[in-house]
Known about the structure:
The complex is a heterodimer of chains A (about 325) and B (about 425). Chain A is mostly helical and about 325 residues long.
Amino acid sequence: MARVTGGAPVADGARVRGRRPATASGLSRNAGSDVRAAYLFIAPAIIGFTVFVAYPLIRSFALALTRDNGLTDPVFVGLGNFRRLFTVDPAFWPSLRATGYLVVLYVPLSLALGLALAMFCNQRFAGVRVVRTLAYLPVVLPAVATITLWKFILNPQVGLLNTILDKLHLPTSSWLASPTMAMPSIVIVMLWGVGGTMIIFLAALQAVPTELYEAARVDGAGPWSTFSRITLPMISPIMLLQVILQTTAALQTFNQPKILTNGGPGFSTNVLMLSIYNNGFSNLGRVPQLGYASAQVWVLFVIIIAVIALTAKFSSLWTYSDNTPD
Amino acid sequence: MKTRIIGTTLACAGLLTATACSGSDSGGGADGPVTVTVMTWESAETNAAIDKALAGFQDPNVKVQRIDTPSGGYGDKLASLTQAKKLPDLFWCGNDTEQQYTSQGLLVDWSQRITGGDGDFKADKFVGSAMENWKTADGQMGGLPSLMNTYGVWYNADAFKAAGLPEPKAGWTWDEMYAAAGTLANKGGAKYGLVADQLTSPDAPFTMSLYSVSAGGAPFTDNVNHPTKAEADAKYVEGVTKLVDAIKSGAVAPPGYDASNVQALFSAGKVPMMFGGQWLAAGFQTDKPKVKYGFAPFPQVDTPTTLYDSVGICTPQYTANEDATYKVLEYLNTKVWDAVLPASPVAPPAYTPAQESYFAALTKAGQTTVVDTVKADLATEKTVGVRFTTQWAAQVADLTTAHYLPVLQGKKPVTELQTYVEKINGLIKSGG
């Protein structure tokens, strides 16, 4: 890479040619038209962001400062909703704990299993395409239908899993009905969709240059050394992406606890998203607490931003990048 | 070009104005009949029976239209229609919805019409406790009760016979119930002797009032609609202690037990006793249980006590024509159940003259224990509410999960009940 003094970096041997030096007036005319075109092109994105992101964000924060049921005029309560959240609500801290537990349990398992599956599917053997399809299949199936099936499988009284375990004279479990087993059960159901993680890892693995593996083989590196010294560093940027995506998704988990346990037993699976839903849109004609739910949304938003910021900040410690300066 | 654009814009605006609709805007034209819309949470079969019955409504100035809506997720649909101000003129509603919506000024107040009207459609023809429960603190009624929910204990008569136990009947005691549950547990494929969701769910504190009130003590709260206090007196604590012991011994299913399949398990003979409502009888008529079964009133300590609950029909404040809506409401309460309940005897009507067809259908189906228990429940003087209907009821459910249910699970001492009650009293004082 060479640098041209006072200009943009250009590739070695490149020459700026075929363009006349612009006159002052020509530059101004072209630049003005370019700027207009640029604004025109980015206008849809700016409008979309303003309407669908910025406005709802501001509106939800305003909502979080009110007592609003969506039916009558909202009442301004300042930070009252946040105060209630942190000091009065008996469900809030258990919700945070349940959410944290879910993240701690799910993210590492999802990454490990996704990577293991991807490495397996990256091999050359007969039927590998069928295996890849089967591994990815749960991702394209309707989530509600599969989760409902899992509910039947994990039912402690009439469930398929306990029936099989019982037939095999193995110990059974209360699964979703047990305060200690409910969250691990939910994580098992979430891992059913690990094909999504696998497919991204598979793409990353296939982008690792084969020369590196050949060189390692020539140098006598074993499978573990090859994995830890070549594969992991080369896919570490994708790993970072996966950590962020999976953590964010886990923090916003809703479908599985809603369908499988509805937050129970006790508060053991009452994750934050479920709590937000129940407060904001509670069933059976109860008056919703939109302001309070918005306050919860903001707490979740801050947590997600903090987790992403921390992950990004410390990512340089474990991700490999070849874009380091000379 | 410019003229064309302006013309098109105006035409679109005109079309939008012409086609714009507002909530419950079913008043019809100046000359045509008024359309009254109805929305239920019933199954397709029951809706078909309701349609058939509504076809008999004759009024040249009023047309009735039932809005077709799948029965699942009714609460969600109701919430979205409420927020969009598009509620139909008459919609099926729970007591808590009626109380909360009325206090927000969202529903038409029928209290004047039902107390001061002519003819038979009057307040004194309804079940007294239901009418009382549908009034707000200031006496408004945003709807009228339509069907009563009575509760009791469903039991597997075969299992009782096999275990040499007498069948439950009116006047049996809580101690007898727990003893029977202990005997029936872990027998014939049953894990627990009794599955009592009402005693172990977030509604549990209210159900436990059955014990304390029957023993001469105080209920958990003085009023579920507009409470002034909650309490757990000595009799109440005694009831909780007995339940904790029964759960600990494995006789009664603990909190967290998945009760969604309990009806199927009961039918299969794998749950010998369960708490439940009378509406299960209608299901048992179509999907007959494998076992001989019966329905008994709740056990008692000294005096009979039962839970009361009712569902009803509400009207939004913006209904187009109150007179027309009220006519259809009257028809629904006085005529429609007669046509619907014989095929599916799901609940006794709150309007007492309409109860005959319900009991006749059950008697014809041989469900005599259900007839006896429902009649006994409706006649019981001491009744307790199922749950708070206040706007802050959801917060009570959270407090119950945090403080009450751990007591039942044996994770917290029974003394924790007082902390729980204090917190609820704080909520009552602050109004949520």
